[in-house]
Design a protein that fits this description.
Bound molecules: zinc ion
Number of helices: 22
Number of strands: 29
Length: about 650
């Protein structure tokens, strides 16, 4: 690895490395601009040399010398590759065709108007599971959109598409043995989720009803999607929700729920043997379509209300000596886990399946924070990190007052990028927990993953829940560019990840996403003010940041509003007394962003470094949609403060 490119040695991005320029001068190279390379995800090892290869009118497949060398498996793994570009040739080596595929994706990103910069890359992913999830139940998205997302996943080296096919919004996959699943449960009266679901007026409609909203995938559609994904080295994991989130099933098959009536419950009847026949039949048809080793069965959020008064469920508790109603869900999950294993497949479920004794291979998806993954790993199971508080694309990505309706929460791309998928020490576990809870968490209060179980975290995933994502445009707006942060979490070694570096590259991808017809969010102009104590608790260092790059941040310290003539922010500065920092983003001589204003006082800053509990009253009066967090480091410890809207609250 060329040290010129190591984080910390560079000021802002690879292209402005002074050391780089000096070395170029010393080596007698003719003077030229430093070459900026904006690869996402950032490769494990890369050295940028001088000059370009000129591909002319040829494509990657034409000009690349490809070497598949199985003896390189130890060095490169199944998915790694080595790429050497010099002025006259492009050479790509990998142990498998998958590695070659990823090397070509890198080459595509390297292409510029000037040619392909000369580089030496040695690259392999950090995680084997690099996922994106798509909910097609709450709102239906057509096959064309699924294929478009698979293209983008491949471009950013993601390799698992988690296909959330069934839920209470509608059943979205044709099952031959149970045709009423889609004939009765795939269409509904309204598109708008709030009007349809939250106002409790929910009604499904038979297929073919004029004006009905919905849809489903035929088996032919599914085969096409699975093949298209496989060509891009992406595995499709289907999810069939069980035992809850199944309201749509009981419209056509009411006998499978406890009451025997539609619109009464979302859970299957645990005590009805017919339910297991149904589920095994459905999964059999699903397994015929999806070659994936992993099959996701949901396993989350059962309300258990109908089970409490159902004679069949009560009889089962008696017969199997289950732990009351709480024992019913694990009973069902265990049967499905065994069924899938008998067919040579492995069950995946949301982290509530930890109530079960799990097979060693079973995969747990940690969605309620990171604790499910930590528990699974420490118990010896495999886990994927997809904490809702950090990696859900349906959360707000900027000030909610500037954004279309989202689910709730606040997960800007910088917050996603800050997450560490393998919290194998108390500090990283506490740092994650602070991000998840938006409050200070003491490292002593969080159990990390045992070091010898760190390899049980197989990867990360971003989830696209679709209650408030009505159409393709909105889906793209919520996914991009945040998917790029997930891709880098999943691929790039932790020590090579750095926000200031990622920010530059990520900004350069925004116009590329747009050129490919994606309705990406174009990043926020909001200024972020962060502070840390300096000079033996005698000064406060103030850092101003913005997602956009480059961004001209203007600020004042004299209480006046920032104007285009105010001080230009270039680097962190210190203040020693009570100071009001006012900052905004300026472009083309005009202030463009809302002003960010913060009183920085030494006493308050010192207070902020101590842990505090958020008062109960605060939780009650402030909706989670507008709670933000601010994080600091002091002596290696992470501290945090909450703020409401644009005003910091003094807490603790
Ligand atoms: Zn029942």
């Amino acid at each position: 690895m060329n040290e010129r490119l190591l984080p910390g040695r560079i000021r802002s991005g690879w292209g402005v490395s002074i050391l780089f320029l000096c070395l170029m001068a010393l080596s007698g190279c003719c003077s030229h601009e430093a070459i900026r390379v904006n690869l996402i995800p950032r490769p494990a090892e890369m050295e940028v040399l001088s000059g370009y290869f000129q591909p002319g009118n040829t494509t990657v497949d034409d000009f690349t010398t490809v070497v598949v060398d199985n003896s390189r498996m130890d060095a490169l793994g199944r998915e790694g590759y080595e790429l050497t570009v010099d002025r006259s040739s492009v050479r790509l080596t990998a142990a498998t065709q998958t590695g070659i595929f990823y090397g070509k994706r890198t080459l595509e990103q390297l292409m510029t108007d000037k040619g392909i910069p000369c580089v030496r890359v040695s690259d392999r992913p950090r995680f084997a599971y690099r996922g994106m999830h798509m909910d097609v139940s709450r709102h239906f998205f057509p096959k064309s959109q699924v294929l478009k997302m698979l293209d983008e996943m491949a471009r950013y080296k993601l390799n698992v598409f988690h296909f959330h096919l069934t839920d209470n919004g509608g059943w979205r996959i044709r099952i031959d043995k149970y045709p009423r699943l889609t004939a009765e449960g795939a269409f509904r009266t309204q598109r708008d989720w709030y009007a349809w679901w939250d106002r409790n007026a929910r009604r499904y409609l038979p297929e073919g009803t004029p004006g009905a909203y919905g849809g489903y995938f035929t088996k032919e559609d599914i085969r096409e999607i699975v093949t298209y994904a496989a060509e891009r080295h992406i595995t499709v994991i289907p999810e069939i929700e069980f035992p809850a989130h199944s309201d749509a099933v009981f419209i056509g098959y009411p006998e499978l729920c406890c009451t025997g009536k539609p619109y009464t419950t979302g859970e299957f009847c645990v005590g009805n043997e017919q339910v297991y026949t149904f589920m095994e039949d459905v999964l059999t048809e699903v397994m015929e379509l999806f070659p994936s080793k992993y099959i996701h069965i949901g396993g989350d959020e059962a309300r258990k209300v109908a089970w409490a008064t159902c004679p069949k469920c009560q009889a089962l508790i008696e017969r199997e000596r289950l732990d009351g109603i709480q024992g019913l869900q694990p009973y069902m999950i265990a049967r499905i886990q065994d069924f899938l294993a008998s067919k040579g497949r492995v069950m995946v479920g949301w982290d509530e399946i930890l109530h079960n004794e799990l097979h060693s291979e079973t995969l747990v998806m940690s969605y309620r924070g990171q604790k499910g993954a930590i528990e699974a790993a420490n118990r010896g199971n495999y886990a994927v990190m997809t904490p809702g508080e950090v990696l859900y694309f349906d959360w707000y990505q900027a000030d909610p007052s500037t954004q279309p309706r989202a689910m709730y929460g606040y997960s800007p791309i910088k917050k996603m990028y800050a997450f560490e998928p393998v919290p194998a020490d108390p500090e990283s576990a506490a740092r994650n927990e602070s991000i998840i809870r938006a409050e200070f968490v003491d490292p002593a209060a969080v159990e990390p993953i045992r070091a010898d179980r760190a390899d049980r975290i197989v990867g990360v995933q971003g989830c696209t829940w679709a209650e408030y994502i009505e159409d393709e445009e909105q889906q793209e707006y919520m996914i991009f560019p945040r998917l790029l942060a997930v891709a880098e979490l999943a691929w790039t070694p932790q020590e090579k990840r750095e926000w200031s570096d990622f920010k530059v590259r990520m900004n350069s991808h925004i116009p590329l996403l747009q050129q490919r017809g994606l309705n990406t969010f174009t990043l926020s102009d909001e200024v972020e003010i962060t502070t840390r104590i300096r000079s033996g608790n005698k000064a406060v260092e103030v850092t101003l940041d913005c997602e956009k790059y480059p961004a001209e941040i203007r600020y004042t310290l004299d209480g006046t509003p920032p104007t285009p003539d105010a001080s230009l922010y270039e680097a962190p500065f210190t203040v020693t007394d009570s100071t009001v920092v006012r900052a905004a983003v300026c472009r083309d001589g005009v202030i463009r962003s809302p002003e960010r204003k913060q009183l920085v006082t030494l006493a308050a800053e010192i207070d902020n470094y101590y842990p505090f509990d958020v008062p109960e009253i605060f939780r009650l009066i402030v909706p989670s949609t507008i709670v933000r967090y601010r994080l600091f480091f002091l002596g290696g410890r992470l501290c945090a403060a909450l703020k409401r809207s644009r005003t910091w609250l003094t807490l603790g």
